Amino acid sequence: MYAIIETGGKQIKVEAGQEIYVEKLGVEADEVVTFDKVLFVGGETVKVGAPTVAGATVTAKVVKEGRAKKITVFKLKAKKNYRRKQGHRQPYTKLVVETINA
């Protein structure tokens, strides 16, 4: 069984036991998080939400919070001696999906 959930402005396909990375949720490690915005549940029976599936939830356990690898942002305006270099590390939360209730 799998489900498509919405979190952090993104839609993610999840299955039980899967490790996923989502936008930072601001919760402690080993907490249980419940997602109510379930857009689709697939498996033996298919449930499609309009926009969400009523009564469906996905529970996941928080493994850790961290920051992704650094990316470099470089702005340049040709012939104007304008250069700006900046780094960015996106914060994330790592989860392990425990159950999908449909």
From TrEMBL:
One of its GO terms (molecular function) is structural constituent of ribosome. GO terms for biological process: translation. Pfam families: Ribosomal_L21p (PF00829). It comes from the Bacteria. Keywords: Ribonucleoprotein, Ribosomal protein, RNA-binding, rRNA-binding. One of its GO terms (cellular component) is ribosome. Transmembrane segments: none annotated. Belongs to the bacterial ribosomal protein bL21 family. This protein binds to 23S rRNA in the presence of protein L20. Part of the 50S ribosomal subunit. Contacts protein L20. PANTHER family: 50S RIBOSOMAL PROTEIN L21 (PTHR21349), LARGE RIBOSOMAL SUBUNIT PROTEIN BL21M (PTHR21349:SF0). This is Large ribosomal subunit protein bL21. It comes from Ureibacillus chungkukjangi. The gene is rplU.
